[in-house]
Design a protein that fits this description.
Radius of gyration: 17 Å
CATH superfamily: Vaccinia Virus protein VP39
Structural class: alpha/beta
Distance between the termini: 51 Å
Number of helices: 9
Shape: globular
CATH topology: Rossmann fold
Largest sheet: 7 strands, mixed
Length: 237
């Protein structure tokens, strides 16, 4: 049975999985993502990615898919700005508002289609491990662009499809339990095209995280690292 789960997970590299998943975003999922976001290695990677894009004149930011708000709070403290966090999971937002009740940041529940903010509202937009959970990726990116101020930047981090392919042996050995909430794994080129099509330019890619075991002696091949990082600027016109 576990092998079948892994096979179905790998199909998401090439095909969008349209299976209903909203019910899976329960309290156990919130705790799982909270633990992941609290990992020191993950926070180091986030810090590195933000430093690489050299943000300027940042007064506020938006975290799309903030879950329990751990990553949002970290970004807020690192950039020294107030953040808004939104998520489609009311359970996650309730937890964030309770856990960070004394925070200056705001956490809002939304339906996943239209962001509850005016055009050109934010100096920075980020989204960590969310685009792979989104069925309508065009609308997701369009909305991110809409609320972002002109010439300001977006940062997206998501699992890397190239890593998935070359980590097949690791997957079979570990017989891992796939995340059922993932609907798609992105390649660098396809995610870049999505951003360009929806009004972004100066699109750049980075790769962080571990290498597949079979490529562990080829660390210079960064394109095969586990996490794909995309940064882009909203076009001026």
């Amino acid at each position: 049975m576990r092998l079948l789960d892994i096979f179905n997970d790998y199909l998401k590299i090439f095909f969008l999985n349209k299976k209903k998943i909203n019910h899976l975003y329960d309290f156990e999922y919130v705790k799982k993502i909270k633990t992941f976001s609290e990992d020191k290695k993950w926070k180091t990677e986030i810090k590195h990615c933000i430093q690489e894009i050299k943000l300027e004149s940042i007064k506020n930011g938006l975290d799309i898919g903030c879950n329990a708000g751990v990553g949002t709070e970290f970004v807020s403290k690192f950039l020294k700005v107030n953040m808004h966090g939104v998520d489609t999971s009311s359970v996650a937002i309730d937890y964030a508002n309770k856990y960070f009740k004394n925070s200056k940041n705001n956490y809002l529940h939304y339906k996943g289609d239209y962001l509850p903010f005016k055009d050109d509202s934010f100096d920075f937009v980020c989204s960590f491990h969310v685009i792979g959970h989104v069925l309508n990726s065009d609308n997701f990116i369009y909305e991110a662009k809409r609320v972002l101020k002109k010439k300001k930047k977006i940062l997206i981090i998501t699992p890397n499809a190239y890593y998935k392919i070359f980590a097949l042996l690791d997957s079979l050995i570990s017989l891992y339990k796939p995340d059922e909430t993932v609907v798609k794994y992105w390649f660098p080129k396809s995610l870049k095209s999505l951003l360009v099509k929806n009004g972004f330019d100066e699109v750049k890619t980075m790769f962080v995280g571990e290498m597949p075991t079979i490529l562990s002696f080829f660390n210079f091949l960064s394109i095969f690292r586990s996490r794909l990082v995309i940064t882009a600027r909203k076009k001026y016109k």
